[in-house]
Each structure stands twice: as structure tokens, then as C-alpha cells.
Amino acid sequence: PLTLGEVRMLVELFYLPYQYGPQAQHLLEHFRWLWANSLSVGVTATAPDACRGTEWRSRARSFQQLCAQTRHLHSRFVSSAGQALLYDLHPYLWDIRNMLLATSAFVHWLGCQSITAPILLGGDAEPWVHHGGLIGELQALLPVGNSCDLFYHPPPHFPCSQPYLLRPLLPLDRVRATAGAHLCMACAAGSGRQLSDAPAPAGRLLGSFLSLSPEYTFVLEDEGGLCGYAAGALCAEGFLQQRDSSWLPARRHRYPRDLGAGAAARGQEALLFFHTEPPAVPLPVLRRFPSLVQLGTAPRVLDVGASRSMAVCLLSALRANGSRGVFCQVSATDQQQLSFYSKLG
């Protein structure tokens, strides 16, 4: 059964429409302060205002701990609550779980990236854009908080207790010996394949982002390991130029066309990817939507809320550095990706 502390947190999260319990209030205050003082994160220990950076990291740890407790509460509630109570309250806990997946990863991203001039968006949104309560206040603080379509999605018919963790790709991930296998899994996730049957150059899906724009790459984890990714490039025009002029030629040299002569169909498909000229993006698209994004999950991720949290976090990171619009490239024959983006709305 739920513990007294878990019941107390459940009540404090949804105490009154505009009044929350102490833990929920701390969560909101921490996030508001961390976002407003995000420039303090890059302050070195020897700087005159080093205390500010130390305080930021301390409050970030407290915020992450509260987020983790709330995500754990969601899983425990689905496993422990009676059916009638579960179906009454699950939509609210599911919403707050998804919001905290995104905000927690965004704060983690703020702590490991340098944003030179973050945009603190002003302006009042229409009243129907935001959810009510704590979820609405957190939503309004995110850089993409006025994009109401990102935040509306009906909860699943069958609640699932599967816990998820969303975080930015860390420098340590890229230097570990096992990172290659992990990233191949993330790549295979985007193509609907398992790691065991992923083609050798699986980096075709994420390789250019990992090489040219790693600071805007997020990974989703469940109890089975990596199960999704969200990657972006702030300046798509420059990113695509670099990809075509340096990254693709290097891949073609490493994986020559005749390498797949005796390979299975999947291996040939992967090799052809490197040796096929990518379609040009029309200039009006680049002018109106200057950033490029790509997302994907493993087939086992059935909770669209986790995918939506990845999108919210990635778009918030891009928006924080000045992006005013994004686009993605999807093959007309890639039914898995078309279905994935359609479910995101």
C-alpha cells in the first residue's frame, strides 16, 4: 500500500486550484528560481560570485529529488491504488509526471550546457492555453509554454506503472566504451528495430547530431535501458551544410558502397543511406523554421506521454537559445516515423 508520505505528497500536489502543499510549492519555487538564474550555472569556483553557482547546483539537486519522488509516486499509485480511485486520479498524476519529466530534463540540460543569452519569454497567453494548477504554472515557465498543442493529450486508457527517466546526453556517455552500443540501441529504437538486428552503421539515424550538435540530444530510459531519443540542431542551415560537406563524406569513406554487396537487405539499406544525396531543404522553410529536430522511441514505449515530454524538453532547449520554429525530415515511405509524429500531434 501507499505510505503516509506518498499520500501526503499526492494531496499536496493537488491541494487547491491556486494553493499547493509545501513540497509542491518548493518544487515550483525551485524551478522558477533555477530558470531565472540559469546564467549562474557557468560560474567557475574561483569567480567572485562563485557562491551563486554553488547555490544553483544545490537547488537543482533539490528540484531533481522532488521530481524523482513525484515520478516514483506515479508508478506506486498505479501499482497500489484500487481500480476506482486509480481511474479517477490517474489522469492528474499522469499529467504531472509528464510535465516533471520535461522540466527535470530541462533543468539538467541547463546545468551541463552554456546558454549565453537565454530568452525569458514574456507576454500573456490566452487563458485556455495553460492547464490549471501546478501543471499550468510549470508549463507557463517553460520556454515553449504558450504552445498549447504540445501539452494537450488524453491519458492512456490502461495506466502503466513503467518508470521513465529523461535526461540530456552527457559528455561521459560519448567517451564510455559501451556508449557505442547504447547509441546503436537508441538508433535502432527510432527505426523500430531491436539492437540485435540493427545494421552495423546504425549511427545513420543519430550520427550527424551526435557529431555536430550533441548539446541538443536527449535520451529516454526505462528499466530496460535506453528506449528513445530526441535530437536537434539550433541552426539547421549550418548543420546541414556541415553534414553534407564533412560528416557524410567521412561516412562514405568508412562504409564504401561495395561493402554491402553480400549483406542482408537491412545492411544494404543502411549503406545506401550514406551514398544517397539527401533532399535539399527549401530556403523558405529554413528561414521560417530555423531548427531541425528528430525523435524516436523503441516499440516497447507505448506511453505517448513520455514521447511528448521528450518533444517539450527538446523544443524548450532550442527555444531557450533563440529558435523560433522547427521542422523534421521524414521519408514518405517510413510508416513507423510517420505514425510516431502523428501520435505526437
Automatic annotation (TrEMBL):
One of its GO terms (biological process) is glycoprotein metabolic process. One of its GO terms (molecular function) is beta-N-acetylglucosaminidase activity. SUPFAM superfamilies: Acyl-CoA N-acyltransferases (Nat). It comes from the Eukaryota. This is OGA GlcNAcase. It comes from Podargus strigoides (Tawny frogmouth).
